[in-house]
Amino acid sequence: MSGPTLALRDVCVSYGKIEAVRGVSLEVDAGRIVTVVGANGAGKTTLLNAAMGVLPASGSMLFRGRSIADDPIEARVTAGLSLVAEKRELFGTMSVEDNLRLGAYTRPRGERPGDTLDQVYTLFPRLKERRGQAAGTLSGGERQMLAMGRALMAKPAVLMLDEPSLGLAPRIVREILHLVAELRATGVAILLVEQNARAALRIADYGYVMETGTVTLQGPAAALANDPRVIESYLGAAESAA
Ligand SMILES: Nc1ncnc2c1ncn2[C@@H]1O[C@H](COP(=O)(O)OP(=O)(O)O)[C@@H](O)[C@H]1O
Ligand SMILES: [Mg+2]
Known about the structure:
Blueprint: E1 6-15, E2 18-28, E3 33-37, H1 44-52, E4 58-63, E5 66-67, H2 73-79, E6 81-84, H3 96-103, H4 113-123, H5 125-129, H6 140-152, E7 158-162, H7 170-183, E8 189-194, H8 197-203, E9 206-211, E10 214-220, H9 221-225, H10 228-235
Parallel strand pairs: 3-8, 3-9, 6-7, 7-8
Antiparallel strand pairs: 1-2, 1-4, 4-5, 9-10
Helix pairs in contact: 3-6
Adenosine-5'-diphosphate (ADP) binds at residues 15, 18, 20, 38, 40-46.
């Protein structure tokens, strides 16, 4: 198959008179990590919600070359898009394993959930250890693993992650992003949105910098991490942090 797995072209999203996303274009390929970095309020979450069909948007959205711009959220999920939202909504009183099994509910193809569960447990051994534990009793990092694992149970072609590092200690951030990097090998296309530009650019293949609703810079992640404009605005402090 040719072309990107997901391509957004000139996407605009407004909340009433506020234009939160203004003409954003980006592409994500299978087995690649693309990151969108930017400060709080830049429009990152709005962009992901628009791609998922949660918010109305203008512009074109192609999934494997086919337009999904007019598809409702359910159709995008069935097609293979998955969003791990910033809030990591889990069923706190249910076990880790039951949360994971719920993730398989939207699975489009005829695969057996048990096979995927084994794959998720291989990626996240910590979740296997805690399979019978109530999700509400997990640590912040484990909750993020569970949210990602649940999304993977649907066997998505595109995994969108909204600030998986948010609220986690630096050591846990490294662990979570290392796991995201490992997901690349499964062939899923990953769209990673992060305020933590340093950590995101370290694992990504390609990056976009978003400022007040528009993309101001883009390029290979390593080049962005060495770009003086990015260093000054996003990587300036704490050279050795996270
Ligand atoms: N539900 C909403 N209603 C009105 N404005 C919103 C809403 N959600 C977000 N915004 C505004 O849209 C802009 C982008 O927000 P958001 O996408 O959450 O940014 P980010 O995820 O990069 O922090 C901000 O100015 C924010 O205040
Ligand atoms: Mg956000």
